[in-house]
Amino acid sequence: MQKGSLVRRARQSQSEVWEFRWREPGPTGTRRHRRIVVGSTGQIADESAARRAVAALQIEINPNLKSTQSAITIGDLVQHFRQRELRTEFAWRTFST
Description:
The chain is an alpha+beta fold and about 100 residues long. It has helices at about 45-55, 55-60, 65-70, 75-85; strands spanning about 5-10, 15-25, 30-40.
């Protein structure tokens, strides 16, 4: 099971952000490094709150673990939806969805 790593990263033109990093197997079998910005330090104050925010992502990066899949909560599902589905690339969806 991967827990990933959570780092606080400075940005040039913005405030600091929390970044979640993990590795996954690529198409040729080599491990690929992945990362996603969880939120700014203004939105998420400390590391424990950021860990709670990435709980749904951990379920996604560990698909073969049945014990992890059965422990999903409604809050994890909501966080997953906000992080994956309400990004700016999906501008046709709004927060009222």
